[in-house]
Amino acid sequence: MQTHCVAPERLACFGNIRGAVMSGRLRIREQIIQAVLFACALVSIVTTGGIIVVLVSESIAFFRHVPVLDFVTGTHWAPLLEPRSFGVLPLVCGTFLVGGGALLLAVPVGLLTALFLSEYAPPGLRNVLKPVLEVLAGIPTVVYGYFALTFITPNVLQVIYPPTEVFNAASAAIVVGVMVIPTIASICDDAFRAVPRSLREGAFALSATRLEVSTRIVLPAAMSGVVAGTLLAFARAIGETMAVTLAAGLTPKMTLNPFVSIQTLTSYIVQVSLGDTPAGTIEYQSIFACGLTLFVITFTINVVAQRVLRRFREVYD
Amino acid sequence: MTCGLTSLLGLAFLSALVFRVLQEGLPRLSGSFLTNFPSVLSPAKAGVKSALWGTVWVICITAAVSVPIGVAAAVYLEEYARDNRLTRFIRLNISNLAGVPSVVYGILGLVAFVRWCRFDRSVLSAALTLSLLIMPVIVIASREALAAVPSSIRQAAYALGATRWQTVRAHVLPAALPGIMTGMILALSRAIGEAAPLLVIGALTYVAFVPEGPFDAFVALPLQIYDWTDRPQRVFHELAASGIIVLLGILLSMNAIAIGVRAWHQRSKAW
What is the interface size between A and B, counted as CB pairs within 8 Å? Predict the structure, then answer.
C-alpha cells in the first residue's frame, strides 16, 4: 500500500503520456499557480528578513552614538532626561523580574494541572477543563492589564502588603503567569500522554500508588517536554507588552523588589511610541536597540525550546 | 487532590476577572455606549463607536490579506514542496515567527508600512502589520488541516487524470476547509485583541470619527481600552470595563462560530 501521494507529473515513467494528455496551456497554468503558491510561502522568509534588517539597520544608527559595550553593561537607563544614559540592564532586569515571577506562578500550576489532566481526571472533566484553560490564553492582554491595575494591585497586593506601589512588578507577574499557564499545561499534557502505558502499568504492577507513578515515572520520562513548555512560556512572558505596560510602571530600575514600579523592554518601546518622538532622534533609535535585544533573547529561547521539544518527540515514537 | 485544586486555580482567576469586569462595566453598557464617540470632557456620555468601527475595518483588511496568503503558503508546503533544505527552512522559520513578540512586529510595521510605504498611521498600516503577525498561526493551522486529508482522495483524483491544482482546488481544499476556517477564526480573534503592535506603529488613542477608507486614521477597541485604563480617574476605569465586555463579547461569538464549524465538520466528515 503506497501511502505517500505522487502527483502524475512527478512520475517519470508517465512522462510521455502526460505530454499527450496535458495541453500546453494547462501545463503553463499549473506552473503559474505553483509559482504563486511558492511566492506566498516566501512571505514568511521576507517577514523574518524584514524584522532583522529593520532592527539591525536602525540599531546600527543608534550604536553610532552609544557604544555597544555601554549599552549592554550600563546599569543606568535615562533616555529622555539630561544627562542621558543608555545602559539597558535596568530594562532587562525588569523584564526578567516579571518573566521569572510569572514562571514562579505558572510552572507549578501548569505542571500540576497537566498531571491532573493526564493522570487523574476522568475524560468528562478533562474535556471541560481543557477548553477553559485555552480561554485564559485567548483573553486579550490589555484585559489582563486592566485587571492587574484595577483589581490585583488595590484589592489583593495592597491589602496583603500595604507599601505596594500603584505600579508594581508583582501584579504584572501574576497576570502574565496566569496568561502562560495554558502554554505550560498543554505542552506538559502532551508530553505526559506520550509516555507509553506500559511504563505506568509496570509501576502499578510493582504496587506503586498513582502519586508515585505520576512523580517517579511519568514526570521524569516527560522531563524534556516540561523544560520545553517552561522555556516557551518564559519567551512569551518576556515578550508580553500590554499587561506589563499598564501594571508594572515606567520607572527603569535595577531591583528584585517586586512591589515597586519598574520598566521592561516592551513597555519602554510602547512608552516612546506613544510620545511623538521624531524619526532620526536617538530616543527613536533606542526602541530599535531595545527591540533587537528583545528579539535576540526570545529567539534564542524559542530555538532552544524547539530543539528540546523535537528530542522528546523522538523518544517513544 | 492537590492537583485537582490547582487546576481549578485558573478557573477561579477567570471567574474573578469576568465577575470584576461585569460588575464594573455593566452599569454603563447601553445602546448609546455603542453609538457614541469617546469623550474626555463628558465621560458619562462616552462610547466606543469609533473603536468598534476601527476594529471592523482593521480586521476585515487583515483577513483579506492574511487568509489567502497564509492558506496558499500552507498549500504549497503541504501539497507542492519537495522535502529539501529550502522547504525545511521555511517550515522552521514559520514556527520561529510564531514565537516573535507582537511588539517586534509593531516595529517592523512602523518602519516598513508607516515610513517606507508612507501609509502613515492608517487602517492599512495596522492591517498589514497584524496580517504578518497572524500569518504563522494561519499557516500552521491550515497545514494541519491539509495533512489530515487522506491521501486516497488525492490518488483518486490523479487516477482520473486531474492535475495537481485541480486536485487541490476541487478535493483537498474543500475537505480541509473546516479545519482551515477554525484556524482562521482563532487567528483573527488574536488579531482583534492585539494592542501593542498598533501602539508601536503610532495609532492614535483618541479618535472621534469613523474611518471611511483604508488610508484614514483609526482607533481600535483594545487601544481604547488601554487609553481608558491608563487614566487615573475611576470613571474611565468603568468605561474600560464596558469596553472589555464589548471586546470579550465579540471574541466569544467568534469562538462560538469556530466551535460550531468544528461540530458541523465532525458530523459531515465523509471518511
Answer: 250
Grid coordinates belonging to A22: 496535458
- Domain B50-213, CATH 1.10.3720.10 — does that match? yes
User: What length does chain B have?
Assistant: 271
Q: How far apart, in Å, are the Cα atoms of B128 and each of A122, A205, B155?
A: 44, 58, 38
Cβ-Cβ contacts under 8 Å, A303 against chain B? 96
Q: Count Cα atoms within 13 angstroms, Cβ side, for A98.
A: 41
Decide: B33 and B47 in contact? Cβ < 8 Å.
Answer: yes
Q: Is B104 close to A239, i.e. CB distance below 8 A?
A: yes
HSE-CB for A9 with a 13 A CA cutoff: 17
Q: Which of B59, B229, B247 to mutate to test the interface with A (most CBs of A within 10 A)?
A: B229
For residue A89, what are the contacts with CB-CB under 8 A and spacing of at least 6? A72, A73, A74, A75, A77, A254
Tens of pLDDT, residues B173-231: 999 998 999 899 999 999 999 999 999 998 887 788 888 889 988 999 999 999 999 99
Dihedrals phi, psi of B167, to nearest 5 degrees: -65, -45
Q: Which fold has domain A78-315?
A: MetI-like fold (1.10.3720)
Give domain limits for chain A. Answer: 8-65, 78-315
Q: pLDDT digits over A27-72, tens only?
A: 899 999 999 999 999 999 999 999 999 999 999 999 999 999 989 9
Q: What is the pTM for the complete model shown?
A: 0.91
Within a 13 Å sphere around the CA of A290, how many CA atoms are in the beta-carbon half? 35
Contact A41 B96 (CB under 8 A): no
What gap in Å lies between CA A70 and CA A66, rounded to an integer? Answer: 7
- In chain B, where the domains are located: 50-213
